[in-house]
Write a structure and sequence with these properties.
Beta-Lactamase, alpha+beta, elongated, 5 domains, 7-stranded antiparallel β-sheet, 631 residues, 47% helix
Length: 631
């Protein structure tokens, strides 16, 4: 292009770089007049040569930048690639990237299974990287928009200060500070993404040139981090497998050792001591299931003596750790210090299929339990559950055998006694060689009648228990005045009270509370409780009967008799169990009275329990029935 401006002539030629225009070359004639055609051709040639020179310079600059980027990546690969320790790799990556991009701060975080873990942070000029370890949930990540965008797009995101909503401010503060931020996501492995967060304090935003230098380094960082994490994971798996194999062998050896004992107490002790040793715990306990929510400590090992002992009861819902273990069916450890002591606890369910055999609890006073300890207990718990159930079944079978033998002996003795008396007196009546006065005859008949009634009562107890076993005992529920039922029971007991000179105090409301229950069942329970109170008290007996009400009606029978030893409290409601020992009075019966009474109470939606008993001070039994509303 040529034109005349003022006294001079001007010409303009395009300077091409490749196929694209780069600029223009303008010249002016030194003298007045137009530029000739040769001048224009010369100018065009000069412009083309200039374009080639510019292209060469640009290529040289680009090659220089590429060389720098390659060198940065090679340096990172040589430095971080020498180690397979994730912490070392993270530290070297942060230092190198921060230096190349002139960042004031660099932080690496790991997102895995919906949780963001801040691995380490490097601040320029303040020493080496510092390990962090703080964890943040998915809600916190979503509350930092810059992070959310980078994760969603899987592309770098540059912004100003790292802003966050209310739920993500702690996370934003942990990741970055400064006027300008760059978030660079890296998909390290399946289910794991790392975030490299860079920050600058000065007013220099991150530009495309920074991204150009970071991307090849990011590729190298991705590879070295992936190798380090995979190696660490493989090492953990190998160590866990070795540990699991060794501890499984210990569990098998323990099973062989413990299983050789037929005694339940020895098996409990052996299982617990082995569990304490395997998990390197300071104390432990095994609890059995007594009801749906109630547990009983069956065996306890604690050399310090600072925790509950065997026989103590506790509620499963009151222990969040034990409840979680039973719900999941696997050992669970406390992640924080718990109370009461010890501060570090493992709760391990002893289960066979869906059957809960018991709960094993282990505690440490100083060192927290780790995941390896949970892996240790898993196979041991299964074997322990099998051993305990087998030992309990064997113990129950033995008890059933002993109970059967005891019952046969007791039944034979109890039935033989009245039969022998009846037979003897009937022989006297049948023998005509010895005249029997009318007074003696009447006394004999009275004794025969009493013994016949005892025999009838024994047979009735056996029949009742048999009907309870097959669910054939009839129940006819009706509205029952509790105070009236107690008075009637006291009336039935009055002859015995007069004969023995006993004293009974009854505290009854004027207008008795009402329940819906079978009259005969309630009467039988009261007769049994009152007669037991007289039978197991030194004469003259002193018995108190009290009716208490809240949402339930409670009939309390309290005596000042011999009392029940503590080791017998749980057995008083067992079938055929009798308190026959030194100091115990003779009382005819098969040991079925309290067992039948307890069953009858349950049939009427109530309960019968031993509230208190102290040897030498007496016992208190409570019959509890649901009260009818006033309407």
């Amino acid at each position: 292009m040529a034109w005349v401006g003022g006294r001079r002539a001007w010409a303009l030629a395009r300077v091409p770089v490749g196929d694209e225009p780069f600029g223009a070359l303008a010249v002016a004639s030194p003298h007045a007049g137009e530029l000739g055609r040769d001048d224009l051709r010369l100018l065009d040639g000069i412009a083309r040569v200039a374009g080639l020179a510019v292209a060469t310079a640009l290529e040289h600059t680009e090659l220089g930048g590429l060389q720098h980027r390659l060198q940065d990546s090679v340096d990172l690969a040589l430095g971080a690639g020498r180690s397979l320790d994730p912490a070392d790799v993270v530290s070297m990556t942060l230092v190198k990237v921060a230096g190349v991009l002139e960042a004031d701060r660099a932080t690496l975080a790991r997102l895995e299974e919906g949780e963001l873990v801040v691995e380490s942070t490097y601040r320029t000029g303040l020493g080496g990287p510092v390990a962090d370890g703080r964890r943040f949930g998915a809600d916190a990540v979503v509350a930092v928009p810059c992070l959310a965008r980078a994760l969603a797009s899987e592309r770098p995101v540059a912004s100003g200060p790292l802003e966050a909503e209310a739920g993500g401010r702690d996370l934003a503060a942990a990741l970055g500070e400064g006027r300008h931020t760059l978030v660079f996501p890296m998909a390290v492995a399946s289910g794991m993404t790392c975030l490299l967060v860079l920050g600058r304090h000065r007013d220099r935003p991150f530009a495309p040139a920074d991204l150009a230098r970071l991307e090849p380094m990011g590729d190298v960082a991705l590879l070295v981090l992936r190798n380090a994490y995979l190696y660490a994971s493989a090492e953990r798996a190998r160590l866990d497998a070795r540990t699991y194999s060794g501890r499984l062998q210990l569990a098998i050896e323990a099973a062989e050792d413990i299983g050789s004992s037929p005694e339940l107490s020895r098996v409990l002790e052996g299982v617990l001591l082995r569990a304490v040793a395997v998990a390197r715990a300071d104390r432990g306990s095994i609890s059995r299931v007594e009801s749906e929510e109630r547990m009983v400590v069956e065996h306890d090992h604690d050399p310090s003596g600072r925790v509950r002992r065997a026989g103590a009861t506790w509620r499963l819902p009151d222990s969040a750790l034990a409840s979680e273990a039973v719900r999941t069916g696997r050992p669970v450890r406390s992640l924080e210090v718990v109370a009461p002591p010890p501060p570090h606890v493992i709760a391990c369910p002893l289960m066979l299929g869906r059957e809960l055999v018991g709960v094993l609890e282990l505690g440490r006073w100083r060192t927290p339990f780790g995941d390896a300890d949970l892996l240790t207990l898993q196979p041991f718990a299964t074997l322990a559950a099998l051993l305990l159930r087998s030992a309990r079944l064997l113990s129950e079978a033995r008890q059933i055998g002993l109970a059967k033998s005891s019952f046969l002996n007791l039944a034979a003795h109890e039935l033989r006694t009245p039969l022998a008396v009846i037979k003897g007196y009937l022989s006297m009546l049948e023998d005509g060689t010895y005249p029997v006065p009318d007074q003696v005859r009447d006394e004999v008949v009275a004794i025969v009648v009493v013994k016949t009634r005892e025999l009838e009562a024994l047979v009735e107890e056996l029949l009742t228990m048999a009907r309870l076993d097959v669910g054939a005992l009839p129940r006819s529920a009706s509205v029952l005045d509790v105070a009236a039922a107690v008075r009637q029971a006291l009336d039935r007991l009055a002859p015995r009270v007069r004969i023995e000179g006993a004293r009974i105090e009854a505290t009854l409301p004027d207008r008795g509370p009402r329940v819906r229950a079978d009259r005969e069942h309630v009467a039988r329970i009261l007769d049994n409780l009152l007669n037991n109170a007289l039978s197991y008290s030194p004469r003259p007996a002193s018995v108190a009967v009290v009716v208490r009400t809240d949402d339930w009606v409670e009939i309390v029978v309290r005596d000042r008799g011999l009392g029940i030893p503590p080791d017998q409290h749980r057995r008083v409601f067992e079938r055929f169990h009798r308190l026959d020992g030194p100091g115990s009075p003779f009382s005819p019966g098969l040991g079925l009275g309290l067992s039948i009474s307890s069953e009858l109470a349950r049939m009427n939606e109530g309960s019968l329990r031993l509230e208190r008993s102290v040897p030498g001070e007496g016992s208190t039994f409570v019959l509890r029935l649901p009260m009818l509303s006033a309407g």
